[in-house]
Amino acid sequence: MLTSTSNSIVSRRGAARVGVVSIVMFVFTLVAFTLMLLAQDAETIVRDELSAAAVARSQSDTKLEAKVGELADRSIILGFSENAAIIPSNLEAAQAALGELNSTFPNMDGVKTFEDAVPSVVGSYNTKVKQIATLEGKIAELEGQLSSERSAKSSLQQEKDQRISSLEQEARDASETADSEISRLEDSVSKLRSQLNSTTAQVTDAEDAKRVTERALEEARLNHSAERGQWTSLRNDMKRRGEKADGEISAVMAEFGVGFINLSTSDRLSEGTVFRIVSGRPGADTSDAKALCRVTSVGPKFAEVSIYDVADRFEPVVVGDQIFNPLYEAKGQRSAVLAGNISGAYNEPELRALFAEIGINIQSDISNATDFLITGGPVFTDEDGEPLDEPMAVDQLPVYGEASDLGVTIVSMRDVLQYFER
């Protein structure tokens, strides 16, 4: 009983298991079928999506090609690229070009696009075209004026050439006349010089005798003055030298400005010495000079002078007029002291040599025997050669005061040089 029961239970359990397995298999089959259906739907969806994507990509490629073509067209028009069909325009180069347009055309007003720039550029260009046309018109007008002026110039040139030819002929005629006149004047001068040479010996002999007498008298006066003492003698001698003539005019060639004086090489006379010429008439005022003369040649019997600065052409220099030079002395000896800065035409050694020629001895210090104090320019250094803070005028020097106290004649270098021209 138990066995049958057990077998029956086992049989029911086995049947149950078969049923469960069948159900599970059915479920699996149903699931598999469902999954298969789902898989087919998903593949269809993916295929549809891929097809749609391909269509979209085709449309995008078409739009991109259109955009690229449009960009290439813009690059071709705008430029700023090495290959405008492939490479887009260079933005920086385009901006630089736009900036150059702004700086080149004054009426751009800072435009930022080529679209705005084109009207201004076109307007400027049209304005320039009009200006060029105006200028070309003016050029044509000026060329016409130039052509007229050239024609006028050609006429003037012909007239000038004719005038020059006429003047050259006149100049040749005048030159021939002048040559003839010069030859005549030269012959006249030669005759006058011959006459002068023939009479000079007679004049100089008489003047030599007169000069010997005057020099003897002068030596006698100097000897008489020396007996009163050296200082008194020199002072009185200086006074007389200022009043007494140094010589006189022996002959005059007024038309040539040449004269002769009764001084010679034995009178310690040198070329360049200047004399004042005064009237030789008795009682005439010797302070008023009729003219000046400068020694040009010194001979053994007389000296030739050049006469200039005639005060009155109606009162010319004549034979017998007297000559004066306050610094010149034919025989005597005088002393001078230099003060201040000596510069200009002569330096100090040259000045000493000049004074030695005319009998003036240069001393170092002022004494009773000093005749002249010759002053130069301001002093810039002291006795030791050190620079002074301020230049010192000559009249501030101690030697100037000493000369004034002793009554020494004070003359400036300018006054000295006017009597001795080299």
What does this structure look like?
The protein is of the alpha+beta class and 422 residues long. Among the domains are: 1-76; 332-417, Rossmann fold. It has 7 helices and 12 strands. The strands form 3 sheets. The protein has a 6-stranded antiparallel β-barrel. Strands 8-7-9-12 form a 4-stranded parallel β-sheet, with helices on both faces. Helix 3 packs across helix 4. Residues 224-242 have low confidence and may be disordered.
Describe the structure in brief:
The chain has helices at 2-78, 91-104, 114-226, 230-243, 348-357, 398-406, 413-417, and strands at 247-253, 258-261, 274-278, 291-298, 303-308, 322-324, 334-339, 360-363, 372-375, 379-381, 387-392, 409-412. The chain is an alpha+beta fold and 422 residues long. Among the domains are: 1-76; 332-417, 3-Layer(aba) Sandwich (Rossmann fold).
Going by CATH, the homologous superfamily of one domain would be: BRCT domain
Biggest sheet character: 6 strands, antiparallel, barrel
Q: What class would the helix/strand composition place it in? A: alpha+beta
Backbone CA Rg? 65 Å
DSSP strand tally: 12
* Strand order in space, largest sheet: 1-2-5-4-3-6
Shape: elongated
State the share of residues found in helices, binned by percent.
55-70%
Q: N-to-C terminal Cα separation, in Å?
A: 188 Å
Uncertain ranges: 224-242
Multimeric organization: single chain
The total of helices stands at 7
What is the architecture of one domain at the second tier of CATH?
3-Layer(aba) Sandwich
The average pLDDT score comes to: 78
**Percent strand:** 5-15%
The ordered H/E elements are HHHHEEEEEEEHEEEEHEH
CATH T-level fold name of one domain: Rossmann fold
CATH class of one domain: Alpha Beta
